[in-house]
């Protein structure tokens, strides 16, 4: 269907860019109407226990305060857990704000102050006093590790570990080379620039327009309709612009419930925006302890792979990720044992954070592969190439494509890997120890059911509509590119309508499936429009397209023409005029091919190469170069795609060196719940990042040949950094993040 005047595949700047850089793109908290009320949340100061008494009298005395909600006066809501479970909820009992006096985690909302102004609400919230009966919290994963268990009920969409294959223990015991190591990763907390907020515009007792920070407008709509018994036709949820999410916005947050609750109760429009501290009571990448055991023969061929992981979860939900499965499909090995357990802590339920499961599991696997290469005396890249595999041993399925060899080759060449000297501490730059490390990345390239509509108007304007979300990944732009190319019009002739719950149904924006899913639905809808136009053209008298088939015609220069001869065709305006129409609109629907999935599975792949320089005396670590080679099928827009990988690399560096949720295990409280003390990579921490997209054709991963890019950029980065640090220092660090104190301690021991 695509025409010679290609725009798909070009590095088009984001069409929403001007609005964002000029500050005129309205986010969830930036909607207002006269008379709007404002809310401020009071947070618990214990991690577990019970509220003995809560005094709101001083808060209620503040001028402008309208009402203070607590568990004692909260309006009624749905009773059954099923009504509170959102579309991606794990098994368990979802958190219900202000329902009971019981405290389940640090920072739990215990009161909501509603006032005429934000300042009044904020000040009044500081005057709410709460008396607690605190209990002794368990927030240290190591202390609850012995209580780990296999979750009986699996999380929907999360593949449990496959059954063991071969004889992994026996093969491990008899192998020429063996390593077994434990890898610990502290929890990480999301810190997007835009904090969570909900603005509810109350119209009447039933009708609401809600502006919510979410990765799925329809998910938020269904959540509040289920809880409050509202008709979905009476509720509109919009999320036009989202200032960072990457998993944190997949599940509705408590400010959505609280804002809607107050609006319905007070019959007024209400806005509730979280503070930065509040954000730390939300989604977090769970802490984990992983043991990886690898064995190889004298030639470096893997003989045994065993990977066990324990992840933290809350007391009330069994949050689960795909952590260990990657070790069973990454490299060829006939003997594998993969096990996964949870351990409950007194914290909020963890949640998806960019490449959930893979970022964690591959960190351990790829660190262990580096250790095995050292044990064998083999180049780390050669070890991976030697154990390359062309199918998925976990499910015994073929791959739709795998360009990992090209990633290894092109990434290594761009990085200059062949110049690496093998011995640790053998490369220097003045006072700096230089280390080169690498790792492989994997992520599932899936599709979710998605619908879209495409309309072509007689004036040549194209409208693409779907409920999909753009969290900064470029969804607006790539959908506009697909629409522009389908109808051979400039991109500014395409209007993209997304991020509205009334639009055609899509899933939440997550899993790196939006481009493949919604993009395919747009293409299918565009093809349907073309087919309808052809039917109309063939009804016209003396139509030159009378015998043409849909696959034989394309749209060029405002005309429906034969693909092989553009001289034969009819102007689209004439076709529409023949039916007295000003436009034609058709739906499109895309989703995974269930029959194909019985035989094939699809993944994106990467090869990450990292250079670190470490001051031998000060222990300061600098990431001086990163090369990330990506195999992800067809690239719709190299500019937005590159941005995705750059963001993933930076987050991977954060995982390796910076990000750590510091908890006082005596109180169960998060101590660094702010930007000053929760460290994320800053500009000074990032140097030369190079992204390479290798050529990869895939006609099975999705109808448009696309594999998702949101997650693959982070997978393997932290391991590559850790491996580079080992190469620089000769010390293996297995506790993440690798902070300067750990480097200094190891260097002092060496001295």
Which features would summarize this protein structure in a list?
751 residues, globular, 5-stranded mixed β-sheet, iron ion binding, 7-stranded mixed β-sheet, oxidoreductase activity, 34 strands, 19 helices, alpha+beta, AldOxase/xan_DH_MoCoBD2
Strand content: 25-35%
Annotation field: number of helices: 19
Described by strand count, sense and barrel closure, the largest sheet is:
7 strands, mixed
Shape: globular
- Provide mean pLDDT, rounded: 96
Spatial gap, N to C terminus: 67 Å
Annotation, overall tally of beta strands: 34
Strands of the widest sheet, in order across it, are 3-5-1-12-9-10-11
**For the CA atoms, what is the radius of gyration?**
27 Å
Structural class: alpha+beta
Helical percent range? 25-40%
* Poorly predicted runs: none
What is this entry, summarized?
It contains 19 helices and 34 strands. The chain has 751 residues and is of the alpha+beta class.
Can you give a write-up of this model?
Residues 148-169 are annotated as: Disordered. It comes from Rhizobium quercicola. One of its GO terms (molecular function) is iron ion binding. Residues 22-136 form the Aldehyde oxidase/xanthine dehydrogenase a/b hammerhead domain. This is Xanthine dehydrogenase family protein molybdopterin-binding subunit. The protein has 751 residues and is α+β, with helices and mostly antiparallel strands. Strands 3-5-1-12-9-10-11 form a seven-stranded mixed beta sheet, with helices on both faces. It has a five-stranded mixed beta sheet with strand order 16-15-14-7-34, with helices on both faces. The protein is built from 19 helices and 34 strands. The radius of gyration is 27 Å and the shape is globular. The protein starts with 16 loop residues before the first helix and ends with a helix. The chain is 26% helix and 26% strand. The mean pLDDT is 96.
């Amino acid at each position: 269907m695509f025409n010679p005047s290609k725009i798909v595949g070009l590095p088009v700047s984001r069409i929403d860019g001007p609005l964002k850089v000029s500050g005129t793109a309205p986010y969830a908290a930036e909607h207002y109407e006269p008379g709007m009320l404002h809310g401020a949340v009071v947070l618990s100061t214990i991690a577990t226990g019970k509220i003995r008494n809560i005094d709101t009298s001083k808060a209620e005395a503040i001028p402008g305060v309208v009402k203070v909600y607590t568990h004692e006066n909260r309006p009624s809501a749905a009773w059954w857990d099923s009504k509170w479970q959102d579309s991606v909820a794990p098994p368990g009992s979802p958190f219900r704000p202000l329902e009971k006096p019981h405290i389940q985690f640090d920072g739990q909302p215990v009161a909501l102050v509603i006032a005429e102004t934000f300042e009044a609400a904020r000040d009044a919230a500081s005057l709410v006093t709460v008396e607690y009966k605190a209990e002794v919290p368990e927030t240290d994963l190591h202390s609850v590790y012995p209580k780990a268990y296999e979750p009986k009920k699996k999380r929907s969409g999360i593949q449990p570990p496959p059954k063991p294959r071969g004889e992994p223990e026996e093969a491990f015991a008899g192998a020429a080379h063996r390593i077994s190591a434990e890898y610990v990763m502290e929890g990480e907390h999301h810190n997007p620039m835009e904090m969570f907020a909900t603005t509810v515009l109350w119209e009447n007792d039933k009708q609401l327009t809600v502006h919510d920070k979410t990765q799925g407008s329809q998910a938020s709509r269904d959540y509040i309709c289920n809880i409050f018994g509202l008709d979905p036709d009476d509720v509109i949820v919009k999320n036009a612009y989202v200032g960072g999410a990457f998993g944190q916005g997949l599940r509705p947050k408590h400010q959505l419930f609280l804002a809607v609750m107050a609006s319905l109760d007070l019959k007024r429009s209400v806005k509730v925006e979280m503070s930065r501290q509040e954000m730390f009571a939300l989604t977090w990448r769970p802490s984990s302890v992983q043991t990886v055991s690898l064995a190889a023969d004298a030639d470096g061929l893997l003989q045994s792979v065993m990977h066990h992981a324990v992840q933290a979860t809350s007391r009330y939900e069994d949050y689960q990720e795909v952590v260990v499965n990657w070790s069973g499909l990454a490299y060829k090995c006939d003997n594998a044992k993969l096990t996964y357990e949870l351990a409950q802590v007194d914290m909020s339920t963890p949640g998806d954070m960019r490449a959930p499961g893979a970022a964690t599991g591959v960190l351990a696997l790829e660190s262990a592969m580096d250790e095995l290469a050292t044990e064998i005396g083999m180049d780390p890249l050669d070890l991976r190439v030697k154990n390359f595999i062309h199918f998925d041993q976990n499910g015994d399925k073929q791959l739709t494509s795998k360009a990992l060899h090209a990633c290894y080759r092109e990434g290594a060449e761009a990085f200059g890997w062949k110049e690496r000297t093998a011995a640790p501490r053998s490369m220097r730059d003045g006072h700096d120890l230089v280390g080169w490390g690498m790792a492989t990345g994997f992520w599932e390239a899936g599709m979710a059911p998605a619908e879209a509509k495409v309309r072509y108007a007689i004036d040549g304007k194209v409208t693409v509509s779907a409920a999909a979300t753009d969290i900064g990944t470029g969804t607006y732009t790539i959908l506009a590119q697909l629409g522009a190319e389908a109808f051979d019009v400039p991109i500014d002739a395409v209007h993209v309508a997304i991020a509205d719950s009334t639009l055609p149904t899509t899933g939440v924006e997550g899993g790196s499936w939006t481009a493949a899913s919604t993009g395919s639905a747009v293409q299918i809808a565009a093809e349907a429009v073309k087919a309808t136009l052809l039917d109309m053209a063939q009804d016209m008298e003396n139509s030159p397209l009378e015998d043409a088939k849909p696959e034989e015609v394309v749209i060029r220069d405002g005309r429906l023409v034969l693909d092989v001869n553009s001289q034969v065709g009819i102007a689209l305006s004439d076709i529409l005029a023949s039916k007295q129409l000003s436009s034609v609109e058709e739906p499109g629907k895309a989703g995974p091919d269930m029959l194909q999935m019985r035989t094939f599975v699809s993944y994106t792949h990467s090869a990450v190469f990292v250079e670190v320089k470490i001051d031998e005396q000060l222990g300061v670590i600098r990431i001086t170069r990163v090369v990330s080679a990506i195999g992800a099928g067809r690239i719709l827009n190299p500019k937005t795609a590159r941005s995705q990988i750059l963001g993933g690399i930076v987050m991977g560096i954060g995982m390796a060196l910076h990000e750590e949720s510091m908890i006082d295990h005596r109180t169960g409280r998060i101590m660094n719940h702010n930007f000053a003390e929760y460290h994320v990579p800053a500009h000074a921490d990032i140097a030369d990042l190079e992204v390479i997209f290798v050529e990869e054709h895939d006609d099975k991963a999705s109808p448009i040949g696309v594999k998702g890019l949101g997650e693959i950029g982070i997978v393997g980065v932290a391991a590559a950094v850790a491996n580079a640090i080992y190469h620089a220092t000769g010390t293996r660090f297995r506790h993440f993040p690798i902070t300067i104190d750990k480097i200094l301690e190891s260097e002092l021991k060496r001295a």
